[in-house]
């Protein structure tokens, strides 16, 4: 068991473990820790507790100290400096003529790094901007391109429910939301009604998705034929998923009557749920929503795969030589089919027995090529 404390650096941000050792840390205390970005100022969201060592991602860094009054004052000063840096960076962006929207600026606690968050429609070449900012602030500069969801999380706002946005208050990660979830819950497919301030599908649609998915398994679809407790056959007019009630159209001579029954009292053949009959306008809105969903997935992939660009320009590191790279590629190509796996031992042995001339050509191949060229 390892003594750890959970630390968060932003409101509704991700929670990280840090070693507590013999320090007394209570929930809500501010702490100074060392991260991959540098020395950071965070908030303990729990007291010291013990967890199994298997759940720890090594190496586990320890809390440097509980924040003092001077540390709190330094954090306030950093916040004031961030406002000035944000305004100055916007002027620099306009001067360089870059098409990008600056969202936020953030100093590490020790001031050794300044991060800028921005959004843009595509890739932006901001190398000259980074050099300009590094010369102005005399510190390491890092620019991070984020998606529209992250932008809304940083800025915040009020949702259609009248409350502060979920992503700003308590959601640490963005879950995948699909149009199917909106269909299962019987929501309108109007883009404006199920989209958040970010222009993407509202995150809260996922909150009850599992419940609706389970309840829908026991319900017929509108248009299905069912048998009532009285033995009459009717057609499903509409359903109430949460109440588990079904409204059925029953023929009574020359008249038709709509009656409501609990789904448990009806007999019907369960099958695949049918899509609702949509008008041309609703189909157009559905197409827009599908494009919206694709954009959301692309933003998530770019956010996971993108790496921050620093103001340090380094040559790429090459792992291994040419033969090592070839061996790795050759092995990868035959991993799925064991019968085609090559004998690496004999491969290396044969490779050593090959004869090369001074120019690096094997088995006199260069001489044969030279004769052909002479002819």
What would you say about this model in short?
By secondary structure, the protein is an alpha+beta fold.
Q: Which stretches are poorly predicted, pLDDT < 50 over at least 5 residues?
A: 305-353, 364-375
Sheet with the most strands, sense and barrel status: 6 strands, antiparallel
DSSP summary, beta strand count = 14
Basic shape: elongated
Order of helices and strands: EEEEEEHEEHEHHHHHEEEEHEHHH
Beta-strand percentage range: 15-25%
The rounded Rg comes to 31 Å
Question: Tally the helices: what do you get?
Answer: 11
- N-to-C CA distance: 78 Å
How is the quaternary structure best described?
Answer: single chain
Q: Kindly state the mean pLDDT as a whole number? A: 77
Q: What share of residues is helical?
A: 25-40%
User: What structural class is derived from the secondary structure elements?
Assistant: alpha+beta
Description:
With 375 residues, this protein is α+β, with helices and mostly antiparallel strands. 34% of the residues lie in helices and 22% in strands. It is built from eleven helices and 14 strands. The protein has helices at residues 69-96, 127-137, 148-155, 166-169, 179-184, 191-194, 209-216, 280-305, 322-333, 344-353, 365-374, and strands at 2-8, 15-19, 30-35, 38-44, 49-51, 63-66, 101-107, 113-119, 140-145, 225-227, 233-240, 245-252, 255-262, 309-310. The strands form three sheets. Strands 1, 2, 3, 4, 5 and 6 form a six-stranded antiparallel beta sheet that branches. A four-stranded mixed beta sheet has the order 7-8-9-14, sandwiched between helices. A four-stranded antiparallel beta sheet has the order 10-11-12-13, with no helix packed on it. Helix 1 (69-96) packs across helix 2. The longest helix has 28 residues, at 69-96. 15% of the residues are buried.
